[in-house]
Design a protein that fits this description.
This protein is mostly helical and about 130 residues long. It is built from 5 helices and no strands. The chain folds into 2 domains: about 40 residues; about 55 residues, Winged helix-like DNA-binding domain superfamily/Winged helix DNA-binding domain (Arc Repressor Mutant, subunit A, Orthogonal Bundle). The radius of gyration is 29 Å and the shape is rod-shaped.
Length: about 130
């Protein structure tokens, strides 16, 4: 009788384990499907740029303040240094730089500086002592 009960428990455990493994496999499959959908919906680094990159001679609709920020960026100033010089907070500079990057069709600070010089928006120069 005891062996029958042990065998029943063993069968039950085997069944439960098999079901658990099946559920785990199904869950993994669902997770992979979700990840694949997210991957397809996220813009990649090569597709983030929604507008074509500006070329020399193209008008860039930068505001006067954006041009000031861009000139200080080209000179090597940090966001904090730019903020202090223009009497703004670093968060504002970060937001403005995001818009500048978008308008220039770039993703990084360095690319923005290079693009600004290429387009003649700013001249390269050393950082001024603050």
């Amino acid at each position: 009788m005891r062996r029958m009960m042990d065998r029943g428990r063993t069968d039950l455990l085997v069944t439960l384990r098999r079901e658990l493994l099946e559920h785990e496999a199904r869950l993994r499959s669902l997770i992979e499907q979700v990840r694949e959908r997210e991957r397809l919906q996220e813009p990649s680094a090569s597709t983030v740029q929604q507008t074509p990159a500006a070329r020399p001679g193209d008008p860039i609709p930068l505001t006067e303040r954006e041009l000031q920020i861009l000139q200080l960026l080209v000179r090597g100033h940090t966001n904090r240094q730019i903020a202090a010089q223009l009497q703004l907070v670093p968060g504002t500079i970060r937001n403005r730089l995001g818009r500048i990057y978008w308008k220039l069709g770039v993703l990084t600070r360095t690319h923005a500086a290079v693009r600004a010089i290429e387009l003649g928006l700013c001249s390269a120069g050393p950082a001024e002592a603050s």
